[in-house]
Design a protein that fits this description.
This protein is mostly helical and 403 residues long. It is 66% helix and 0% strand. The protein starts with a helix and ends in a 14-residue tail after the last helix.
Length: 403
C-alpha cells in the first residue's frame, strides 16, 4: 500500500512525509517499520530528484532556487535514518549510512556550502594523522550552536510577523474581490534553509566519525572471532572457566572441614587492649559474656548447634563497642562506691567531733582581739551619745533665712 501511494505522490509530498519521520526519529525512538518506510520515501525522493535534474555540478548555491534548497537534505536524512536500522548486518548498515553522508558532504562541497575551516581541517587530517581533533570539534560545536540560535531567531521573528499580520487583518475590513497578500519573505526563507544545511553538515561530520569508530570496533571483533574459531572456541573457554570455579569451591569446602576458626573475642575491654597493643590475641582471657549473635533471625532464634550455622549467625557484627557489664552489675558497682564514700565521710565527721581534735585545734585570729573588745565598745557608745547631743546640721541654723 505504501509503494502504490509513493508512485502517486509528488516530490514535495514525499519530502514532507519523510522529513516528519526523520523529525520523529530524532526527537524520540520509533519502530523499525517506520524507519524502513522513511528510508523508502527518501530513496524515492532521491530518484525523482535525479530524474528531474534539479541540481547540476556546474551550479553553485546561488544558482539553486529557494524552493529546491531543502532537497539537498535528502541525502543527510537518508544517512541518519539508515544508521538507526537495527536489523541485518550492522557493518553493512554502517557502510551504507557512511556512503550517504559522504555523498551529502561532497555535494555540499561542490555547492560551496562547506565552511572553509572544515575543509582546511580535513586536508590537514589527510596529510597529518596527529591533527588536534579537539580544536576541530570545538569549532564545529560553536558553529552548530550559532546555527541553532539563528534558526530559533528566524522562527520567532516569523511567528511575530504572522501574529501582527493576523491582527491587522482582523482590524482592517477587506473589500470585495481583494485577495490576501502574503509578505515577501523569500530572503528569510532562503537564509533559514542555508543555515539548516550548515547545521546538518556539522552533525554529518560528527556522525561520520562516530560510525567509522563503530565500524572499526565491529570489524576487529569479527576478525578476532574468526581467528579464535568463532563460537566453538569461546564455548570451550567458558566451560574451562566453569570447571576451574567448581574445583576451587569444592577444594574450599573440603579445607573448611579440617580448619577450625578462631574463637571470637566477645569482651570489649580485652578487644580494645588487643587493638591498642596492650594484650596479645593468643593471651588467655576469661570471657565472662557469651558471644552475641547478630546474624539472620532464622539462625539466631533457634540457637545454632553446628559450626556452619554459628558462623552464619555471626555474619553481621555490631560496629560499636559492646558493654562489659550488665545494668544490674553497674548498679551494684555504683552502690559499692557510694558505701565506701559514706564510710569515709562518717569517719571524717567522727574525727572532727572528737575532744582530741578540739584540744589540738589552732587558735583563730578573732580570739586574739577579744581583749580590745571592751575599749572599742566604750568608744562606740561615747560616739553615739555625742551624735544624740549634736544632731546633723545643728551648727548651721544661723545661715538659714528663717533661723
Amino acid at each position: 500500500m505504501v509503494e502504490l501511494n509513493m508512485e502517486e505522490m509528488s516530490l514535495p509530498a514525499l519530502y514532507e512525509k519523510s522529513r516528519k519521520i526523520h523529525q520523529a526519529a530524532s526527537d524520540s525512538s520509533v519502530d523499525q517499520d517506520t524507519l524502513k518506510k522513511g528510508c523508502e520515501l527518501l530513496n524515492k525522493c532521491e530518484e525523482m530528484i535525479a530524474k528531474l535534474g534539479l541540481f547540476s555540478v556546474n551550479e553553485s548555491k546561488d544558482d539553486i532556487s529557494t524552493n529546491n534548497l531543502k532537497y539537498i537534505l535528502v541525502l543527510y536524512y537518508l544517512g541518519e535514518l539508515t544508521e538507526k536500522i537495527a536489523e541485518g548486518d550492522r557493518i553493512q548498515v554502517l557502510k551504507s549510512s557512511q556512503a550517504k553522508l559522504k555523498e551529502f558532504i561532497s555535494f555540499c562541497e561542490v555547492m560551496e556550502l562547506v565552511p572553509a575551516d572544515e575543509l582546511e581541517s580535513s586536508a590537514q587530517a589527510m596529510g597529518n594523522a596527529s591533527t588536534d581533533r579537539r580544536a576541530k570539534k570545538i569549532a564545529r560545536f560553536k558553529r552548530q550552536k550559532a546555527a541553532e540560535s539563528k534558526l530559533l531567531e528566524i522562527r520567532e521573528r516569523k511567528e511575530r510577523r504572522g501574529r501582527s499580520t493576523r491582527a491587522s487583518a482582523l482590524s482592517t475590513p477587506v473589500e470585495v474581490g481583494e485577495d490576501d497578500m502574503e509578505d515577501d519573505d523569500g530572503e528569510e526563507e532562503r537564509e533559514a534553509w542555508l543555515i539548516t544545511i550548515s547545521l546538518a553538515l556539522c552533525k554529518s561530520f560528527d556522525l561520520l566519525e562516530m560510525l567509522k569508530k563503530e565500524e572499526e570496533m565491529l570489524s576487529a571483533i569479527r576478525e578476532r572471532q574468526s581467528q579464535e574459531g568463532d563460537n566453538e572456541l569461546s564455548q570451550s573457554i567458558l566451560d574451562e572457566r566453569a570447571k576451574k570455579a567448581e574445583a576451587w569451591h569444592r577444594d574450599a569446602a573440603t579445607r573448611a572441614r579440617y580448619t577450625k576458626p578462631t574463637v571470637p573475642i566477645t569482651c570489649a575491654t580485652f578487644a580494645q587492649d588487643v587493638l591498642e597493643g596492650r594484650a596479645d590475641v593468643s593471651q588467655f582471657h576469661d570471657h565472662k559474656h557469651q558471644p552475641m549473635l547478630f546474624g539472620p533471625a532464622s539462625l539466631v532464634g533457634k540457637n545454632p548447634t553446628s559450626e556452619r550455622e554459628r558462623i552464619a549467625a555471626q555474619v553481621f557484627q555490631p560496629y560499636h563497642r559492646l558493654p562489659t557489664m550488665s545494668i544490674e552489675e553497674a548498679g551494684l558497682k555504683e552502690m559499692e562506691i557510694m558505701n565506701t564514700w559514706q564510710e569515709s565521710t562518717k569517719k571524717l565527721m567522727e574525727e572532727a567531733n572528737s575532744s582530741w581534735y578540739n584540744d589540738n585545734k589552732p587558735p583563730r585570729p578573732d580570739e586574739e582581739e577579744d581583749e580590745d573588745d571592751d575599749a572599742a565598745q566604750d568608744k562606740a557608745r561615747a560616739w553615739d551619745d555625742w551624735k544624740d547631743d549634736n544632731p546633723r546640721g545643728a551648727g548651721n541654723k544661723k545661715l538659714t533665712p528663717c533661723g
